[in-house]
């Protein structure tokens, strides 16, 4: 019933056009984003056609040594990108055909599937969760993300409001910035000091991605009265949703409450017309460890929990 075609670069335009018209796709699935680190993965993305018409996509990569398909290791979430006409029964048909293709074509023994969290969909799109259940999928990990629902906002904590006012009184200014380099210095220092790690993206990678998606990838920063960057955040705009990809503050920025001022402004003014603001996950080790200090900070802005799951199906 469904014809499965493995993605090749010749289908770049067809793939991207479908992502933009789908009911649950984001710009992260466009090839200009997915392929910036294509050298790190063996792409195994699939396209599903019914009666000659493209009905769904699966961003995926293949790990030969594990004989496992992932959807997708280079992305926070993956899962089936669906067209508006796709029904529950058709999604079940796709899963049957997809799992059979993985077994017979790749000799795969496992599929690791990361569904797109519901907040990213433009309309209900959880048919794949039911298909996972029907095929005996086992929950592998559960990340806890913190999300502000602008249509049902929880009030900011008194502490956040007070610190934000203090920052503004100190003379800081908030604006959109093009100075990724200065922000990456602050971000890198914070991650080294706190977690002995570095950003997932290098500065050069983020500059490349921003050049490809200038309307989606934005930097907002807080500056001191004399023009020094004190704090900032890189956000991904996705239609009705904004995702905080990175956020960091210098020691001076922490002292004056720069981040509180920044997110009070983003939530209350800059993105007040959006449906969701997603701060991202505060968990480690597949969700078994919760960074309580980090999640408290996000929840003080009125955010509440949405989970990022991954499942495994034995083939």
Write a short abstract of this structure.
With 315 residues, the protein is α+β, with helices and mostly antiparallel strands.
Essential attributes:
alpha+beta, Aminopeptidase, eleven-stranded mixed beta sheet, four-stranded antiparallel beta sheet, 10 helices
| Poorly predicted tracts of residues | none
Let me know the CATH homologous superfamily of the largest domain. Answer: Gcn5-related N-acetyltransferase (GNAT)
Instruction: Report, as a whole number of angstroms, the end-to-end distance.
Output: 21 Å
- How big a fraction of the residues is strand? 25-35%
Kindly identify the CATH topology of the largest domain: Aminopeptidase
List the helices and strands and how they pair.
Layout: E1 3-6, H1 12-21, H2 31-34, E2 42-43, E3 46-50, E4 53-58, E5 61-63, E6 68-71, E7 81-82, H3 88-106, E8 110-113, H4 127-134, E9 138-149, H5 158-169, E10 173-177, H6 180-195, H7 203-212, E11 217-223, E12 229-238, E13 241-249, H8 251-256, H9 258-270, E14 276-281, E15 283-284, E16 289-290, H10 292-299, E17 304-314
Parallel strand pairs: 6-8, 13-14
Antiparallel strand pairs: 1-3, 2-5, 3-4, 4-7, 5-6, 8-17, 9-14, 9-17, 10-11, 11-12, 12-13, 15-16
Structure in words:
The structure is a single chain. The chain has 315 residues and is an alpha+beta fold. The protein folds into two domains: 3-136, 3-Layer(aba) Sandwich (Aminopeptidase); 147-308, Aminopeptidase (3-Layer(aba) Sandwich), CATH 3.40.630.30. The protein is 34% helix and 30% strand. The protein is built from ten helices and 17 strands. The chain has helices spanning 12-21, 31-34, 88-106, 127-134, 158-169, 180-195, 203-212, 251-256, 258-270, 292-299, and strands at 3-6, 42-43, 46-50, 53-58, 61-63, 68-71, 81-82, 110-113, 138-149, 173-177, 217-223, 229-238, 241-249, 276-281, 283-284, 289-290, 304-314. A hairpin with a 4-residue loop joins strand 15 (283-284) and strand 16. The chain starts with a strand and ends with a strand.
């Amino acid at each position: 019933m469904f014809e499965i075609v493995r993605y090749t670069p010749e289908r770049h335009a067809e793939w991207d056009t479908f992502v933009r018209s789908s009911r649950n796709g984001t710009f992260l699935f466009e090839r200009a984003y997915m392929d910036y680190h294509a050298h790190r993965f063996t792409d195994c993305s699939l396209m599903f056609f019914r009666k000659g018409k493209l009905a769904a996509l699966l961003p995926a990569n293949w790990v030969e040594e594990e004989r496992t398909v992932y959807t997708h290791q280079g992305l926070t979430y993956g899962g089936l990108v669906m067209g508006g006409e796709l029904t529950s029964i058709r999604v079940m048909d796709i899963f049957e055909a997809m799992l059979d293709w993985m077994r017979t074509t790749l000799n795969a023994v496992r599929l690791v599937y990361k569904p797109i969290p519901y907040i990213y969909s433009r309309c209900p799109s959880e048919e794949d969760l039911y298909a996972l259940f029907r095929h005996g999928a086992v929950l592998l990990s559960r990340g806890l993300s913190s999300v502000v629902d602008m249509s049902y906002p929880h009030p900011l904590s008194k502490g956040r409001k007070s610190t934000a006012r203090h920052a503004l009184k100190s003379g800081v200014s908030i604006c959109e910035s093009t100075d990724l380099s200065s922000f990456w210095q602050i971000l890198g220092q914070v991650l080294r000091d706190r977690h002995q790690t570095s950003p997932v993206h290098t500065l050069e990678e983020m500059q490349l991605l921003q050049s490809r998606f200038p309307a989606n990838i934005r930097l907002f920063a807080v500056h001191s009265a004399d023009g020094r960057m004190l704090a900032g955040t890189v956000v991904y705009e996705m239609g009705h949703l904004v995702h905080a990809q990175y956020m960091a503050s210098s020691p001076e920025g922490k002292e004056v409450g720069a981040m509180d001022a920044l997110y009070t402004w983003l939530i209350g003014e800059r993105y007040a017309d959006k449906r969701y603001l997603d701060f991202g996950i505060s968990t480690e080790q597949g969700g078994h460890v919760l960074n309580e200090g980090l999640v408290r900070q996000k929840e003080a802005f009125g955010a509440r929990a949405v989970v990022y799951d991954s499942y495994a199906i034995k083939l």
